[in-house]
Recover the amino acids of this structure.
């Protein structure tokens, strides 16, 4: 699905073959440590949120929902890493954790694997990269709508419904082998949601959907930064953005802010991306050194129409 071994760029050899081979080594230990830490943060922030809800403190509950929700939405990053089968050395761990993480974050890993494979194969290529089927914001209103997560929720509900009904036309990345597997996986996921709702509808709403919705804008902001404003060609040094950010964000996003490094070497496990950044960083065309806030402020400025100077004649 994606390049697993290449080590040359248009800029020349950036990583020696033996160094790349060393960095590509996966580790069940590293993956389990990161997963355990992520789940511990889910439980810790969830406990604080639950206490605020049970005590009826509305304002505190709203504030607490955001960090708790962020630990939930960033299970997407765990799924993403496992879809590449780089989170763990064991294939069964990658596939099992990918499905579980997708369940928590409202993604389906079985669908996402071929979808994401095409994204890596055809990054930023119009008509081929499936991520470009979702248009980037072109004005302030579409930007706010995108960050709200509203379009994401609608898209996810539509996609899950289509897959569950077996309506796979238009998904060029699915074929006769992957299509039926995706249908079964999505049906099982929706069945799990239905069972959860039947067993505790209010709890599902309060302790999962509401925090997930509250923090979805943060994930939208992170993902929007990955390719927006980058070159629309096949050069991984310019078609993807790396963003400098805080350690907690890098931790919960499984190092995906080093996104250009990930796209250049998609076979690298998450814990190898920061070391690679030291070698690759100087060659990257798009590095947001002032973090996600700096990147978005610059992007918003580009969306505001410039006033023409008044004529003095």
């Amino acid at each position: 699905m994606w390049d697993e071994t290449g080590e040359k760029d248009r800029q020349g050899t950036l990583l020696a073959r033996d160094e790349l081979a060393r960095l590509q080594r996966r580790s069940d230990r590293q993956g389990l440590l990161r997963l355990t830490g992520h789940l511990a943060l889910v439980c810790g922030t969830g406990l604080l949120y639950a206490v605020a809800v049970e005590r009826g403190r509305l304002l505190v509950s709203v504030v607490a929902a955001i960090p708790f929700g962020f630990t939930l939405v960033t299970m997407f990053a765990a799924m993403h890493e496992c879809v590449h089968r780089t989170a763990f050395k064991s294939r069964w761990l990658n596939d099992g954790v990918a499905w579980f993480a997708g369940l928590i974050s409202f993604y389906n890993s079985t669908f996402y694997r071929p979808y994401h494979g095409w994204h890596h194969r055809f990054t930023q290529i119009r008509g081929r990269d499936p991520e470009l089927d979702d248009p980037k914001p072109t004005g302030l209103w579409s930007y706010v709508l995108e960050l709200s997560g509203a379009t994401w929720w609608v898209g996810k509900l539509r996609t899950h419904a289509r897959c569950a009904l077996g309506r796979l036309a238009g998904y060029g990345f699915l074929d006769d082998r992957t299509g039926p597997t995706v249908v079964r996986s999505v049906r099982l996921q929706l069945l799990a949601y239905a069972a959860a709702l039947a067993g505790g509808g209010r709890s599902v709403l309060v302790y999962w959907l509401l925090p997930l919705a509250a923090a979805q804008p943060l994930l939208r902001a992170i993902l929007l930064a990955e390719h927006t404003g980058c070159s629309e060609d096949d050069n991984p040094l310019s078609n993807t953005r790396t963003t400098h950010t805080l350690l907690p964000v890098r931790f919960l996003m499984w190092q995906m802010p080093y996104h250009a490094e990930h796209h250049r070497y998609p076979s690298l496990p998450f814990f190898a991306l920061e070391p690679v950044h030291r070698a690759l960083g100087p060659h990257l065309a798009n590095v947001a050194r002032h973090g996600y806030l700096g990147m978005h402020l610059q992007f918003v400025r580009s969306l505001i129409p410039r006033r023409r100077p008044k004529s003095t004649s």
Remarks:
- The chain has a mean pLDDT of 93.
- Residues 25-303 form one domain.
